[in-house]
Amino acid sequence: MTLSVTELINRLSVLERRVEELEKENRALREENDRLKERLGLNSGNSSFPPSRDLYKRKLIKKSGLKPGGQPGHVGKWREKLQADEEISIHPEEYCPCGGKIVLAAKPYTHQKVELPVIKPIVTNYYLHHGRCSCCKKRYKARLSEGVSNDLLGPRAKGAVSALTGFFKNSKREAQMILEEILGLKISLGTLSRTEERVSDQCETSYQQLEEKIQQSALLHIDETGHRLGKKRGWAWVFTNKSATLIKLTESRGAKVLEKTLPNYEGRVISDRYSCYSYFLEERRQVCWSHLVRDFERFAQSRDADLNFIGRHMVSIAEEMFGLHRSLLQKNIELIFFLRRCRILRRRLRYWLKRTHRLPGLEQAKRVSKNILKCEPMMWKVLEDPLEIPPTNNLAERQIRKYVVYRKTSYFAWAERGERYIERMLSLFLTYQRDNPCQKLLQLLMPATASVPLC
User: Fold this and answer.
1) CA distances, 194 to each of 41, 241, 292 (Å)
2) Pairing state of beta strands 232-240 and 219-229?
3) CA atoms of 152 and 449, how far apart (whole Å)
4) Which of 169, 191, 314, 431 is 20 to 30 Å from the Cα of 406, by its Cα?
């Protein structure tokens, strides 16, 4: 059967439209395939994923081929001898088998053996006598002496409970087991929870003092992460500097938390590029370079050859900037050299970011580079005072790690009362660690049960 020219033209137009549809579908599938492949390559080094979500652990450190442990020439370290409660002298044989007399050295070897005493709780019974008036029959009962509380546990026992559940990330049942098996103190879960509540109330004043100290700080590192409060979503904020750390658990991740915690704050802030931090003035804000490096690494690992080329240049610029800043802090280079070199790196980075916009396709990479260019002035606030303003927000990341581990190991909290206890205990503990790294933990725990001094 022969077809007319009109029918052939109509069929050709139908086939052409079909080809266009298939090409469009094929292009969409290719783009989706590229996006999925890039997502498959995401890890903690090129995205905000935590290291625990890495599918394949990257080997960041090359093997040296040496045996593990101390190497020849390293500075030796040893445990200092403790003060002895008992001393026992042991002498060798008086004569050698050959017949000669053994002459003892002036100083003997010391073999020290340490043992823990049998731990038994100190229990005190207060007998409160009571009676009636012989005339009016009114009841009377003795009261506890001044300074003796109605609590079941004393200050040291409260300190132990606070340490186990607040500092050492144990769950309630684990703390109950440790108290019974090691310290010989058998208490119920209800008593343990009420003890936490009382300690939290007594730490409220110190927590408020710590918040005031943070508000008056000249430089702050800020970060946030999420958690679950029962079935609801919650957020943990960390505000930290060289001398103090404040953990704040809230229901919001928005700027209203910053407005409430840091009203009219005039100091410098170091944070990531999350939009709520626009609450602070750009002139007072430094963007974290560690977060920028993740985006640069993602560019460098792209399947697109042009973006891969640009990303590798960005990574090298960031590595050089880190190396220069490290050398400046170690006083290996002069400040003027650091500033001049960073100005050159700044121009190069701006060039590569703008070049990303001219790449065909790659819409996500273009959006990321545009967002980085918007905050470009905030990336280089470190140049205003390199010795005081760090280029990264690593301090906040390290401080919030205590909370993240607590969240994973202790089942966190199921009520607002538990949140208040966690934020106060972690804040005080992290602050004492920064101000008094060599202070004994018991010196922190004992006042925590009565009135906790700030620092």
Assistant:
1) 48, 32, 45
2) antiparallel
3) 13
4) 191
Statement: residue 134 has pLDDT above 80: yes
SS3 call for 179: helix
Q: Which residues pair with 270 in a beta bridge?
A: 221, 286
Is residue 169 within 8 A of residue 406, CB to CB? The reply is yes
Q: How confident is the model at residue 445 (pLDDT cuts 50, 70, 90)?
A: low
Eight-class DSSP state of 224: E
3-state helix, strand, coil in the chain (%, to 5): 50, 10, 40
pLDDT band at 45 (very low <50, low <70, confident <90, very high): low
pLDDT digits (tens, 9 = 90+) for 55-108: 555 555 667 778 887 788 888 788 888 889 999 999 888 888 888 888 888 899
This model's pTM is above 0.70: yes
Strands in 258-388 per DSSP E:
268-271, 285-287
- The SS3 of residue 328 is helix
Q: How many CB atoms lie within 10 A of CB 198?
A: 17
DSSP-assigned letter for residue 231: T
Q: What does the DSSP 8-state code read for residue 164? A: I
